[in-house]
Each structure stands twice: as C-alpha cells, then as structure tokens.
C-alpha cells in the first residue's frame, strides 16, 4: 500500500492534548465553532471563512460565559435538528427514553423459526428462472392444462428449493449459535455506582463500561478514562480490519480524572447517527458545562481488543447492530460472471425458440380442429360432447380460439425444460467444486503468511479465464511493503554509504538507563559519516542533521513499546505504527541516536545521544491525499515552537521557501531524482520556526477546526495549509521497498499471455519506472510514451501526439515485420496522476469519491455513474491510446483515480478486468473491476474483505489465471453449451412427437421420465465433467502462457458455437425421434413402449455425446457417465412395474425384441456421426491451440516418463515438501 | 533428518497448508484418449463393417415377411365418393344397427405363409394418442372392484344418466374396435386363435379378474364394441389389446393368430362384419395377414438406414484417409500453435 494509507488513519490530536496554559480558553471554543456552524448553514462556504484572520482572538477569548451559553444552546438546537444522536452519560434511562436505540444484542441470523419459510422462499424467488418454473408449475395445476401429473410437475422446483433452503437453514443455524455465544458474554457495567457483570445483550447506550486488558470490546464506546494517567489506551483492531499493530486512543482530560464509582459523572454526548465508516467519528461531549470535541481517536469499536492498558472506562454510544463493526459486516457486492451474462443472451434465444415451437404446435392444432370441426362430435378419439348429463354440452371444448390458447400454454409446460433450470443448480455445484480445488491448491499456499487461497465470491470463477487487463497496486502487491531505510540527503549532502559497516560488527545504537539496555528492535545500516555528524551538536551541519532526525523521530504517529527479552537487562523498543515508511524512518532515527522513547497524547520523549528531551506535541496535521504531507507542531524544550513537515516531493517543493538556501534545495532535488531512479521511495522533510504570534494564530484556528462537528476535515486541512508554508528544507529520506518473490517472472508470463498489465501506484514517476524495470514490466525493447501535464488542454495535446506516434510505430513495425520478421514493437504508456485528473472527468471522480467514502452503494451504481460521465472525448483518447499499449504505468494516483481508471477500461474496452491490491486504498478498484483480488498480506484486511478472491502473493496470479482460470472457463463454457444441448434435444423429441398426436402434446415419454431426465438421467455426468475434466495439464498451461488467449478470445463459448450446437441438437433429435418412428410405423407398438425407447435413446445419446468430449477419463467420470445410463435403465424399469401407470410392463415387452436394440444402436451412431466427423476434421485440418497442446502433451508423455504431469515449473512452483 | 521431520510435523499441525493428495491437486490418474488418425479411420471403418451386415440382414428379414394387406372400409359400404351425400349415406349405413354389415373379401396368398400367421386390423389416421383420448381411463377401476366409482378421470364416458359408474369407463374402452373377421379357404374355414393376443402382464395385474363390465355401451352414443358382462375384464383380450393405446396414428392391432400354413396362390375369403365407424372422419380400415421375423413386420426402413450410415462411414473413412495423405499434419507439432503460425507467416 502506498503512503496514502495514512489518509485513513486519522490520528487527531485534539485540544485535550494541549498544554495547560491554553486550556482555559476551552469555554470560548464553543462559540467559535458555533460561528463556523452558522456560516456553514447560511452560505456553505465555511471552509473559506475559518482562517487565521477570522479567529479574532480578544473578543472570543474574553467573552462572557452567560452570553456564551445562550449562543451555545441556540446552536445546540440547530445541530439537534440535524441528524445527531444524544447520549446521556451514565443515564441509560434518559438516553433511551426518546429514541429507541438498538440494544447490544446482535442478530446476524436472517431467519427465525417462524419467518424461515416465507422469507427464504421470498429470497429464493428473486431468481427469474425460479419464477418461470413456479409459473409453469402453477399453470399445470389448472385442470384444463394439466399436462403432467401434479406431483411430477412440482417436484423439480421443490427439489431445488428444498436443497437451497436446507443449505440456508444450516448456515443460519450456525449464525444463530455464534450470536448466542456472543450475546451471553459478560462485561462490567456501572449499575448504581458499582460495577456489576452484565451480559452483552443487556447493555444499553449511555451505560459506563469497564474493560480490562486483553478483553474484547462489546460495543462502540467513547473513552472516558484509562489506567494511564494521560488517558492513553492501546487497542488492537485485528478483528475489525486485520491490522495487527497497536493503535492509540485517548480519553479526554475532562473525564480522565473522574472516578465514576465515587462521583457521579453526568454529561451529554452528541454524536453522528450510526454509520459504517470505521475510521471516522464526530461528536461533542458536554461535561461540567464544558464542551469538548470528540474524534475517531476517542472512540473504541466493538471487536477491538484492549492491550497494554490495565483498564479503560467508556460510555456506550453505539450498541448491537448499530456498531460500526456490525454495520460493516456485509460481504462483498455480488458480481455476475461474463459467461453468465452471455449465457443469459442465449437463454433469450432459447426462449424465442421455445415460443416458436409452442406457436407451431398451437397453430397446427387450431388448423386441425378447423379442418375436422364437423367430425369432432363423432370422432371416437375426440368426442366433443358429453352425454352423461341430461343436458348435452361440450366436453372440455372451449371454442377454437381458446383451444389454441390452451394448447399454447400446455406446450409451454411440456417444453419447459428448454430453459434449463438444472443448469443453474449445476453451475452452482460446479463452482463450489472449482472453488474447492482452488482453495486446496498447495501451489497457491504461502508458507510465510500461512495462508491459503480464498474464494470469497462463488459466482465468477470462470471470469478468471478471460482476463484481459490486470490492474495492480504496487506497494504490498508487487513489493513486500517491508521498508528499509537506505540513505538520506541532509542539507544538500548525500549520505548513502550505509553498507560501510558489515552486519556482524554492527550492534546498533543502544541506550543504557539504570543498568538496563534499551535497543531498537530492528537494526538499520548506518552511514558512518552521518553517524559522526549526528554526534556533533554545535556545527551548522550538526544542527541540520539534528533537526532532520528530530523531524524523523517526531513527525509521525509511531508508538514505542518496550518489549521484554530473555535477558532481563536488555529491552527492545518496538515501534508500532500504521505506516511502514514511518516505522522505517523512526528506526533510522533511533539508529543515529535519536530514539523515540515515549509518546503520550500531549508529548513525546526523545532520547538524543543519551539525553532525554521532552517535546510537547501541540498539534498534528495528519496525512491526506490532497496535501500528501503531514506536519507536527512541537513545543521544544527551549520554549520555541517548531513545525516539522514531511511529505511527497511534489507537494513539498510547493511549500518550501526556495529563497532560503536555494543551493540546498537544488541539491536535494538532484538527490531525490537519483534516489527515485534507483527505485527508492522518497520523502522530503522540512521545518519552520513559529513566532509566538504565528503560533497563537495557528492555535486558535486549530482548536476551532478540531472542535467543529461538521466539515472538520476540511477545516483542519485549511489550517494545515496555512501553517505549512515557507518551510526550509531539511533533507530527504530514501526507503527501499523490496519486490516480492517471483513478481518479475509473473509479470512476464502475464504479458506473454496477452494480458495488459497496468500498475497504478502513488509513487513518483521515476520510482515507478525503476520499479517497472526491476519487475520486468518495462523492458528495454519497449517504446515509452510519457504523459505528464498540468492542464486539460496540454493533456489532450500530448494524448493526441502520443496516438499519432503510436500509429506510426505500429505501422512501422508492421512494415519491418514484413521485411525482417522482427518482433512487434511494444509500447508502454507512463501517465501521472495530475494528467489523469484532467483526463478523468472531475465530476466522475467526485462521485466516485462520495460512493467510496460511504462505500455502501452497489457496484452497479458506480457503473452507472461512470457511464453517465463517460461522454468526455478526452477520456476516449486515453482509452484509444492505452488500448494500444501493452503496459501502462500510472504514477501518483490517488485511490479514487484507481477506480476511475478501472471503470474507464471496463466500460470502454468491454474486456475483462482484474484488479489486485492489498490495502484500503485499493478497495474501490477491487470492487470496480470484474474480478477483484485482495492480497492477504501485512496491511489490513480491507482489501480482502472487499475482494472476490484473496491470496498471499502476487505470483499466485499466474497459476490462478493460467491454470485454474483456464480450466474454470473451459469447464463452465462446455457445461453451459452441453446443458443447452441436453435439454433442447429432449424438448425436440417431445416436439416431434407432438406433430404426430394431432398437435395435442401427448408425450410418449412418461411424466416421470420427463422430470427425472434432468435430475437423475443426465445431471451427474455434466457436474462431474464440469468439476474434474482438464483440457490441458498444469505443466502445459504454465509452459505456454499464450494458451490463456483461448479465454480472452472467448473461443469456448460464443454465438457461433451456440448455433453450431443448436444445429447439432436438431440433427440428433431428428435421428433419435425418426429412426424409431419409421422403424415402427404402422406396427402394433404401443405408446409407452415407444416412449421408453425414446427415453433411453436420448439419455444414451447425450451421455455418449458427453463422453466424446471428455478429455481426461478418471474413474469418477466413468462411474458418472456409465452409471447414469444404468440408472436410467433402472428408473425406466421401476416406472414400468408400477401397475397404476398406463405403461405397465411396457419396457420388458419392447426390450425383449431385437428391433429395440437395433434402433438404439442405430440412433446412437447415426446421431453422433456428424458431430464426430466435424470434430475430427476440425482437429486435423484447422486445429486450435488447445488441440495442438494436447497432442504435444500426449506425444511427450509417451516419449518421456509418465511423471511429466507432476513435474513443475520451477519458477512458479517452489519444490513442495 | 529426524529432527527436521519433527519440525515439519509440528509446523504442519498449525499450518493451513492444504494437505497434499492427488485428488485435491487434480492429479488423479486419468486416461487421456486422443483421436489419432489411425483411431479415427479404424472407428469409421468398423462402424461401416458392423452396420452394413446388420442392414443387409434386416433388409432380408423384412423381405422374408409375407404380408397381405386389404383395405376394406370403402368396399364394405354401399356408396363411395367424396361428396357430402355419399358421406351421409355411409354414416347412416354404419350407424344403423339393423343394416347387414357383412362383407366378403377375396384375397390371394402371394407366397407361402408359415404359421403362426398374425391377423391384424390396421387403422390409419386414428389418433389413439390424442390427449383427450389417452387420459380418459381409470387404471384403478380396471384393476379392482373396490375402485368401481373411481371414474373422475374417465370423462366424458364415466357414468350413465343415473350416476351409475360405467365399467370399464373412459373413451378408450368406449371406442372398442368391433369389426370381426372370419377366414376360410376354398375347402374349409381357417380358425383364428384369439387366445393370448393381449400381454400376459395386462391380464395378470393390470385388469382385475373380478372386475366385470357394467353399464357398458348402455347409452347413446355408442362408440364401438360391447362386452360380455359375464366375463371379467382380464379375459376380454380384445379390450386389453385395444386399451394398449398405439403410439402412432397409423397402427395395427392384433386380432388373432392362424395356426396353420397358407400355401402360395391359395385363395382365401374373409367374412367381415364391418361394424366400426371410421367413416365420420378421414380414416381407413385394413385387414392384415402377416408372418413375422426378428424385426417385426415388413419394414425396410431400418435396413436401409443401417446400410446408408455404414456406407457414409466407409466413405468418410476413405475421404479422411485421402485428405490425410494429401495434407498430413504431424501430431503435436508446436509450429502449429497460433502464435508460432502468426510469426511464421508474417
């Protein structure tokens, strides 16, 4: 993940952390925040108004209390009108009297015993296919239309519904059980001024809860006090976002001192309505007549664990289902695979086909009735009139028009399986099977992180075989996200001699206090020259170095933790923080003797060359993706105020005063260039002394901004902009980000497979390009096109130029290829975030931003937004250009731009996109892409939670796409086509027979056989083949990445194949139907016997058809295919020994004749010969890649030993144990 | 080594590493047949070799069947012709119970017919598979006297006026075929054996031996034959044959068997009671005398189909062989992979 990740970790140092001498102004704070509220309400431009100038200190500071409270109450009402939740501290009765807040019991189960049946059925019938079959089953219940027996017509649907209901019920039962365990856990709650144990489910909003170390939080609560005197609590959020490092939360000074068991605390917390943003919280607390603002650093959320803090008190603000953890509990949005989308198109063709068949039957029936209308009364087999009643009336005859209509409906019932309901079930089952094999694949298991492949979405397996674009995050995905401090440029001097000291000699910096040795946990290689410089205090250079390292040690949110070791005298200092860059920097500072020892909410202690120094942290402007920098305002031991800033070079050089020492700035810029071209991540560090007046100005506006309830982030950003100006440059740091194992090889294979790889990174252009080279994304053979502009017009211009150049290059290379057979010129596009901003519609971005911030909207809404905005022509140009490029590197991209780019390619190119990333900043991209993959690495679980598939390493993409993706696609495509064929052939046989029954839809095949056809006779083989069959072995697929193109070009499932299949179906149904018809024409055969012949003929036909296409015969395949045929014989026999059915004993009569077997044999061969012949001619004279590769496998197999299958490609498959 | 194994064992306990098995890694032993040219040609030729003899034998079997087919429905009514008047006259003739419907047909045996000679009646254009018709029956009623009133499914032929159930009910039974044939040569009558013409299974299980016809054909309109009320249904073999509804609109049903041989050129005369009304719609009645072989009656279709398919397969085998000789392609040559082809051609 990029350094952008900081934007999600809002560590705000609130006014509570301010030194005491300014604390008395807290009563005035409220009034200034009210002003900002008024302005917000009136004009909506509050951001502009809150600046240094606006904070007219004297009047605010010394305003009277009475007036103040009046204004306070007025604003109070106003906010009340807006959506706020009022929590009375320690007064759950009052809190819960007006609004019924959720209790703390949770219910993740969907159903109760009573609601299970209706709700589950309701949910299941959301599928259109089910409604279709329900309607048909209902139609069949009408006496006029009863074609099948009632039971027979309901059975398939009931079976499907039952299976799903049992599955849902079991899952829900497990959820209920775990809910029950959760709800009955105990916690200490303050009741009548004493802490008592209470069940979690009985806790209410407004109660005070006491949590001890290592306990799990039962609900979302605002911290009141902790065991730590400064009010710090450490929490671990593994359950919430998977991050294992400790985070700090702060109790307010106003409440920290109170002991609720002795004195009653009362107050009011006004906070936002429950929402799912786990990184945001805004509230005010009114306590002892003071108004205190609360932010995300004051709340601890359900599911977190308290660590390193012996106890903490908090007040429940959100409980049960309204906690942020529960609100975030919903899974990833469901996507639909492309194959399924295409399949739905073919289903529409099939429905048209069905309507055509029904129309033919009903119209012919109408014509037949018309022609025989005079004969109907006396026809023995029709008997229009019913004479049994005294009044002779028409018997089941509703007139010509109605009869046609009824016959139409009846034919829909009879031909219903033209729309294959079983296909939906089979697809689900096959996907489960495929997921099983993907999860179990030990080549996608990562030993280091002990994690398997995870399938989080079960309905897009086959999309993995059709990916055309891969969008990859860089940090943590391509690289390991283990940062190592490499070198630094300080005061215009480059110190990069880190390797001078060998690893063995180096003991690293350590600190001795009272006989104990403190040592940083991680060792950093140090530059000896810089080390000696850092010890000089009084030279200019030494001061510079001093300031630089103070900045590294202070300007961060790292928390030092002391870890005991086996040696009682030695203690390790572990720096816990959210940004690995910051960790690396703090370790580096420690190595040079600037060791961060302690951090509380108000101050930090840094040990400088053995001397403890206390710095007051007066304010901290956290990182955001706009500023791309963070700053800290320190009150130094010498009573001066300093602001330290560190950030990305692009934005830092805008706020650095070049006039101060232009040489240093120049030299630093040169060094930055050097570092980033080595592929290092750079940060620029700057500082400024604040005068007393500047400081006060900053302080008042900072307080006002940080207590604001609405628009706080924007206000704070404004304050930060104002203080982060005219800095003097201290230097720059360079951190190495190591590539993950196997990344270059994986990228190369992806490129060979014709997959366009896009890397989207927040890094600078030079860094990105150098990482591009080291990861083999870029090669020296490629032509690079760099787009790097600042305005929309110039952007458009350079895109146009690039397009022209592109065309020229491709035509040139075409020409040269013809001449010399040289390889195709590959083009790489390198584009930066600023240009992208201009290219991607700003409006689009904003909307994506909104969507992303809440990320509660569904993917389809995101799509509609981008479609709405995609009319921009410049967008189109980017698309045109990028579609010509084999590689695209986007640098300096914000998280939301990532989603924008993915959306652009997905909608414009109509190709399959895959996004892979590991951090919270990739969530939008992962959800936007057709397939989203989360790297379950060391960053949080946000990406994994949003992803469809999760794995541990980027290189697993190769086996995932080339092997599993290919197989999944081949299997699923074949299965869909086969299912269409299988059902259509049966329907056509029924249809042909209808033509010989004066179009009355009598079926020779019994009702039960019609029903069992897709359930027993033919279901299992297709599932087994769909799960197990492999067209090519793993080795072959990895050896020839180009084979992946089959899926990209949609070779296994497309319109042409569909129509060919339908033609084949037509022929096979003709053969299966007409051979017995003509062989038995004019004989004394009865309906049931002939029906049995047709049933068995069709079943044998479709099973042999499948057998012809099976590539690998496992014993399971044999069992399924031949077993199905045997099962059919058994079922037909069973049906024919039931004396209440008209077909009693028919099978035994007809199977006793030789003619029966001759027909069966003839049908099978005659029906399949065309398919066989077409197949072999294509295989021999127009072979596709898969066919050649398969032969290759066979030829090599016979040439070499049989172990070829097990032998692995050493690059992707480290030897297995 | 042993300590290393121990370590790996303790790791594997905690590890989520998927357990290796050939199944989970999709490496089960499999047979991978591939269609080599040899296999293809062998398959096609063997299909030809198997099919043609079967076709020939079934053709010869069909050839050996001796069949006499005589259409008598036109000849056994007073008037012929297509106009309305003729039709009305035919109808009034057949519907009138008092007219003499005896009709004598003289036939010549073309070849020697060995016994058993099957006597069939054949109806054309009679839809015994019509939906209304096939559903109008009650198998429960036929099986047991307990379900005598179980006639719901038999409409419109379920009850007579005073709500007494008809046994056997339903349109199928009601429309029972009732033409009769008596065959004689010049010298003496040829007995037609009407025993065991129905399926044994029908007699034993499907139709009850204690179910007797009741109220059958008691009421207009009368669809066909009447039943002897003293015989149980299981012994009414004509009914049983009729109730096995035919699959196709042109069908034969067994009338009886002749247990003696008929010599070639022998003249036989058939006395037909032409009772059954097929004149109200476009249908035909025929009398069929036929011997039988393994393919049943006279039908050349299967033989011809087998010979055609076999022939086509042989032809394809030759075509494939030729094309393969002219334009051979080595198996599994990587040069044929599409990306290799493209670079080679350009």
Describe the structure.
Chain A: Residues 25-42 have a biased composition (Low complexity). Chain A: It comes from Abeliophyllum distichum. Chain A: Belongs to the cation transport ATPase (P-type) (TC 3.A.3) family. Type IV subfamily. Chain A: It is a multi-pass membrane protein. The complex is a heterodimer of chains A (1217) and B (346). By secondary structure, chain A is of the alpha+beta class. In chain A, the strands form seven sheets. In chain A, strands 16-37-36-35-17-31-34-33-32 form a nine-stranded mixed sheet, sandwiched between helices. In chain A, strand 14 and strand 15 (393-394) form a beta hairpin. Chain A starts with 25 loop residues before the first helix and ends in an 18-residue tail after the last helix. The model of chain A is unreliable at 1-81, 500-506, 815-823, 842-872 and 1201-1217 (pLDDT under 50). Chain B has 346 residues and is of the alpha+beta class. Chain B is built from ten helices and nine strands. Chain B is extended. Classes of the chains: A alpha+beta (1217), B alpha+beta (346). Chains A and B meet through strand 14, helix 14, helix 37, helix 38 and helix 41 of A and helix 2, helix 4, helix 5, helix 7 and strand 7 of B.
Strand count of chain B? 9
Largest sheet of chain A: 9 strands, mixed
Largest interface by Cβ-Cβ < 8 Å? A-B, 105 and 105 residues
Number of strands of chain A: 37
Strand content of chain B: 15-25%
Number of helices of chain B: 10
Overall 3D shape of chain A:
elongated
Biggest beta-sheet profile of chain B: 5 strands, antiparallel
Alpha carbon gap, first and last residue of chain B: 57 Å
Average predicted confidence as pLDDT of chain A: 78
Task: State the distance separating the first and last CA atoms of chain A.
Answer: 32 Å
Helix fraction bin of chain B: 25-40%
Overall form of chain B: extended
Work out the oligomeric state of the chains in this entry. Answer: heterodimer
Per DSSP, the total helix count of chain A is 42
Please indicate the percent range of residues of chain A in DSSP E strands (runs of 2 or more). 15-25%
Adjacency order of strands in the biggest sheet of chain B = 1-9-3-7-6
**Residue runs with pLDDT of under 50 for 5 or more positions of chain A:** 1-81, 500-506, 815-823, 842-872, 1201-1217
Region (Disordered) (chain B): 136-159
GO cellular component, one term (chain B): membrane
InterPro entries (chain B): CDC50/LEM3_fam (IPR005045)
Transmembrane segments (chain B): 34-56, 305-326
